[in-house]
Design a protein that fits this description.
Distance between the termini: 28 Å
Strand content: 15-25%
CATH superfamily of the largest domain: Alanine racemase
Structural class: alpha/beta
CATH architecture of the largest domain: Alpha-Beta Barrel
CATH class of the largest domain: Alpha Beta
CATH topology of the largest domain: TIM Barrel
Number of strands: 19
Number of helices: 18
Length: 512
């Protein structure tokens, strides 16, 4: 009976807390045992008040920090209206109970003659049940009529996130790995632009129990949103972040021996996975330094629970890159075997990211770390999760020789209709697509002309009569997949998607 999204352990305690508030005002055990009633109403029921105050702050303050008065004022208005309605709802009952003269006194006399007073007012437990039932009914009505208004339909630019495609991709990835291997969903960079919290929640509902992020702050964001399970921070962390990581039960990556010393100096037990450098030369202990890795596992204040590396050329089919990938795999498993030979359990082993799942699917690992593949990009058999759309803001008609855009880089060679699209590089749409990319309007391709602006983009829609102000344009999606758009911008899909900004509204749907 909730009119808000699920919020972890807060949800299940709201109803008991509400009943404790009712008990505090009705003394349900007074007729049976004054002592028991005192314990219930004056001790246990007092828990409800700080709970409701804490929950209000939990939901209000983080949003207020982001949105200022725009978040606080609507909350206060709804709260005051709720209290006003509750006061009006229970005022007759309080007057009735207080022996007021006049009509209410007459009603009380009638209730005494019919036995209702004895039943509902003098019997404290039944009084408690009556008020509780009325409160639940009132709460249902308030939830229905006072809930926050839904967000308006997308008007400028937005990304449609197809959760049914995400479900399909999870199934396709699971089909490629051994049954004993599990998925660790990579949701760093706000879920590659898809929305980390929403993606993680959906994946958790589909049985995913581990997630990977790049920073402690990203991991803490998931924890605040109620995401449980393991959360691995893939990037290097620094001493000021250790306390938050410990409090949020995050797993940190041990990047090198110096980092291991910093982690040990923290003084509290930290969960860790050890990164191994098998040739990418980014983060990690060199795979040949068995002693240094073993020292991390044996450190009393460090809880090394896993070992991992990253395959830097697993997406390449050239003979040299394939040989290098296999050398990385051999070096990693040789290190794991050396640790076992010393009586050390390396714990969870993971080596395959998206490309590795497809190029080397049968490795004896505990986890795989799909990132881009999770979102349906880069591999066959997957379905794209994100479609980027915007609206046509205006139409301009140019005569031959007219110019348009910054630097007058577009010159009309014929009578031309230009559509102004409501998206620009400040939304994460690459500036490099000017003169190179396309949009789809009414199912037809419209070349992007001139320079992409901060907030708008120009398209040639001369051959698309259906292009009118207010109609939709597709920038990434069916017919314009992320890989093709990224190629036109001379970048990669990872960058294209992860750069989509906060101005792009995310809309989550089960589209198919």
């Amino acid at each position: 009976m909730s009119c808000s999204p699920r919020s972890g352990g807060l949800d299940w305690f709201r109803l008991p807390a509400a009943l404790l508030v009712v008990a505090n005002h009705t003394s349900p055990l007074l007729a049976f045992s004054p002592e028991a009633d005192h314990v219930l109403t004056q001790i246990l029921a007092r828990v409800a008040v700080p709970f409701f105050l804490t929950v209000s702050g939990y939901f209000l303050l983080p949003k207020a920090e982001r949105e200022g008065r725009r978040a606080v004022c609507p909350f206060l208005r709804r709260t005051l209206l709720l209290y006003l309605c509750a006061t009006l709802f229970y005022l007759p009952l309080q007057l009735y109970k207080g022996h007021r003269p006049g009509l209410l006194g007459a009603l009380r006399g009638f209730a005494r003659l019919t036995g209702l007073t004895t039943l509902l007012m003098d019997n404290d437990f039944l009084h408690f049940l009556a008020v509780a039932c009325l409160s639940l009914a009132a709460g249902a009505l308030f939830c229905r009529f006072l809930r926050p208004r839904p967000s308006p339909a997308p008007a400028r630019c937005w990304a449609e996130i197809d959760l049914s495609a995400l479900r399909h991709n999870l199934g396709a990835l699971r089909a490629r790995i051994p049954p004993e291997c599990a998925l660790m969903a990579v949701v760093k960079a706000d879920g590659y632009g898809h929305g980390a919290v929403q993606i993680a929640r959906f994946c958790a509902g589909e049985g995913v129990g581990a997630f990977a992020v790049a920073t402690v702050n990203e991991g803490a964001t998931l924890r605040r949103a109620g995401i449980k399970g393991d959360i691995l921070v893939l990037g290097r962390t620094f001493p000021p972040e250790f306390s938050e990581a410990h409090r949020r039960n995050l797993i940190l990556t041990v990047a090198d021996p110096v980092h291991a010393e910093e982690l040990a100096a923290f003084g509290k037990s930290l969960r860790l996975h050890v990164a191994v450098d098998t040739g990418m030369h980014r983060l990690g202990f060199p795979s040949s330094e068995v002693d240094a890795v073993a020292a991390v596992y044996r450190a009393p204040r460090l809880r090394a629970e896993g070992l991992f590396t990253h395959l830097c050329a697993a997406d390449s089919d050239t003979p040299s890159d394939r040989a290098f990938t296999h050398s990385q795999i051999d070096a990693f498993f040789a290190l794991a075997a050396n640790l076992k030979a010393r009586g050390i359990d390396p714990g969870v082993l993971h080596i395959q990211a998206s490309a590795g799942i497809y190029s080397c699917p049968a490795l004896p690992c505990s986890l795989v770390r799909p990132g881009l593949a999770l979102y349906g990009v880069g591999s066959s058999g997957l379905r794209p999760v994100l479609t980027l759309k915007c609206r046509v803001a205006a139409i301009h008609v140019l005569a031959p020789g007219d110019t348009a855009g910054y630097g007058r880089t577009f010159t009309a060679s014929r009578p031309t209709r230009l559509a102004v699209l409501s998206i620009g590089y400040a939304d994460g749409f690459p500036r490099a697509l000017g003169g190179r990319g396309h949009a789809l309007i009414a199912g037809k391709s419209a070349p992007i002309v001139g320079r992409v602006c901060m907030d708008q983009t120009l398209c040639d829609v001369t051959a698309i009569p259906a292009a009118v102000p207010g109609c939709e344009a597709v920038l990434i999606g069916s017919g314009l997949d992320a890989a093709a758009v990224a190629g036109a911008a001379e970048t990669i899909p990872n960058e294209l998607l992860s750069r989509l900004g906060v101005r792009v509204q995310r809309v989550y749907r089960m589209l198919s």
